[in-house]
Write a structure and sequence with these properties.
This protein is of the alpha/beta class and 423 residues long. Helices cover 29% and strands 23% of the residues. It has 14 helices and 20 strands. The protein has an 8-stranded mixed β-sheet with strand order 8-9-10-11-14-15-16-17, with helices on both faces. Strand 2 (36-38) and strand 3 form a beta hairpin. Helix 11 (333-341) packs antiparallel against helix 12. The two termini are 36 Å apart. GO terms for molecular function: hydrolase activity, acting on carbon-nitrogen (but not peptide) bonds.
């Protein structure tokens, strides 16, 4: 009897803290009227009219337009509509609790794992993933960590039963970690004496992979096979590099192997290489905005104004959230973009960092990243400016036209303890 009671109690606890059930497919048209629509491509429409059906936006324009409203009409006067925010280079869904090893699956053993697919390890039921949605972060690039070649990322939406349902773009890119010239440990900085050896290892690995792919391919070598998309341009190569020397050598490395589709991730010193990046049409996914400068002689506000420096140089820029507590901090992505406004960017430029620019870099801009007819109805309604934590209060959110729940374990606890204070 005691065992039965214990089991029932455990099940009740699991049910009460389980993730919200994913929303069903959109079955009726929805019209949002009267809101200020932030398109994501630099345009803003006051008093907008947005209609979507079957998961796609069918009309967007002025609410003054004489056109029949379809389906359910949402009165959003005084509110704001945004495209769903996109988080590149995140380990969301790969780790649930850092201290619980069984829930930590963001890295494989070894240095060369281009064949590792992060998507199949993605936990769609993650409570951390669920907590992104109330701030408008609705899509992300799930990226592995570790070694020189960490593996392959995929892009998912954040309301799904499983990784198959979540997938938006499968195996979009391979991730290469470029060696650092300096090592930083517990505040101490030392020269990486193995830098030349490590870069030579990377060059040798890619040379061997290219030779294998151009030959008989026997016996089968899965890691080399998984680099075929990088060589033929169907897959992007995200090169994680922060230092000026590393960025320059990474770009030259890509040229040596005629790799046309590369992205720099991190880019702490990318402002020193703007001409090189611009001339080679290389976008940058920038380090977290709320970071300390990497060098003693760097400007104190360098991480805050970096997006401005690169944008002014004509480089396509997006923001990422890696670093300490990277998964939890992903929910702050809109506020990192908001910080760039205080350091030179316009609000429309800042919005692009986490919408259309991110979509372009990830190769999903045909369907996501902006509010345009024919694109996915992945958007949300906010009470105010979504880049300001004081006014980012979301009342409705949709992924592919599906009205998703904004309830999380955190909102449940908030209501619970609010009532305690009221009593």
């Amino acid at each position: 009897m005691k065992k039965t009671i214990t089991l029932l109690y455990t099940l009740c606890c699991l049910i009460s803290f389980a993730q919200q059930t994913p929303a069903p497919e959109q079955t009726k048209a929805i019209t949002i009227e009267g809101a200020t629509a932030h398109i994501g491509n630099g345009e803003v429409i006051e008093n907008a009219l947005i209609m979507f059906e079957g998961g796609k936006i069918t009309y967007i324009g002025s609410a003054l337009t004489k056109i029949a409203r379809k389906g359910e009409v949402i009165d959003a006067k005084g509110k704001h509509v945004y495209p769903g925010f996109i988080a590149p280079n995140t380990t969301l869904g790969l780790v649930e609790i850092d201290a619980v090893r069984a829930s930590d699956d963001d890295a494989e053993m070894g240095l060369w794992n281009p064949n590792v697919r992060s998507l199949i390890a993605y936990n769609a039921e993650s409570k951390v993933v669920e907590s992104m949605r109330p701030n408008g972060v609705l899509l992300g690039q799930i990226t592995p960590r570790g070694g020189f070649l960490s593996g392959t990322s995929s892009i998912v939406q954040f309301d799904a039963w499983n990784w198959e349902d979540a997938a938006v773009k499968v195996d979009d890119a391979v991730h290469l970690n470029w060696p650092r010239t300096f090592r930083r440990r517990r505040g101490n900085v030392s020269v990486n004496k193995d830098y030349d050896k490590q870069t030579e290892q990377i060059t040798t690995y890619f040379t061997n992979a290219k030779a294998y792919l151009g030959g008989a391919k026997t016996p089968t070598h899965l890691p080399f096979e998984s680099l075929s998309g990088v060589f033929n341009g169907s897959q992007k190569l995200f090169i994680h590099a922060d230092e000026e020397k590393g960025i320059i050598e990474a770009v030259n490395f890509a040229k040596t192997f005629n790799l046309k589709n590369i992205v720099i991730v991190g880019g702490a010193e990318a402002y020193k290489t703007t001409k090189l990046l611009k001339d080679n049409n290389i976008p940058v996914v920038l380090m977290r905005t709320h970071s300390l400068p990497g060098l003693d002689d760097s400007d104190y506000d360098l991480p805050y104004k970096m997006a401005k420096l690169l944008t002014d140089a004509g480089i396509t820029v997006a923001l990422e959230t890696s670093g300490d507590m990277e998964r939890m901090n992903t929910r702050n992505l809109p506020f990192y973009a908001g910080t760039t406004v205080a350091h030179g960017l316009t609000k429309t430029q800042a919005l692009q960092l986490i919408t259309l620019n991110a979509a372009k870099i990830l190769g999903i801009d045909a369907n996501y990243g902006s509010l345009e007819s024919g694109k996915s109805a992945t958007l949300f309604i906010s009470e105010g400016d979504a880049l300001d934590m004081r006014t980012n209060i979301i009342s409705e959110a949709f992924i592919d036209g599906r009205s998703i729940s904004l309830e999380t374990h955190q909102t449940t606890l908030w209501r619970r303890y609010s009532k305690k204070l009221e009593n």
